[in-house]
Amino acid sequence: MAIAGTFTGPAELADGELVALADRTLAADGFVAVLEADGRLAWSRTFGGARDDTCAGVAVLADGAIAVAGTVRGEVDVADRRLERAAAPTAWSRVRADATVRAAWLVGGDDFDG
Question: What's the predicted TM-score (pTM) here?
């Protein structure tokens, strides 16, 4: 089962911990995670930066990869991929079933997009 959400870290998730990417601020980060059938955490990834970032949705694709959508502000880190926009665009990423990020990109204009 794939889940996604927003947290101000650190935060607990199943038997694991979510670590905020900007741990010196109270800004929110997004996360995506996969839980085993028994509820144990298989893996999790966080994304975010020094400003509030949120997760808006998650979907499991036919090939087992996971698509994640969120809103980011300023510079954001998605699995060591730096994305930057002054406004608040929508960020999309595609995560393989083994937790590696296949792609990450921003969609939107000069104002809030969500």
Answer: 0.73
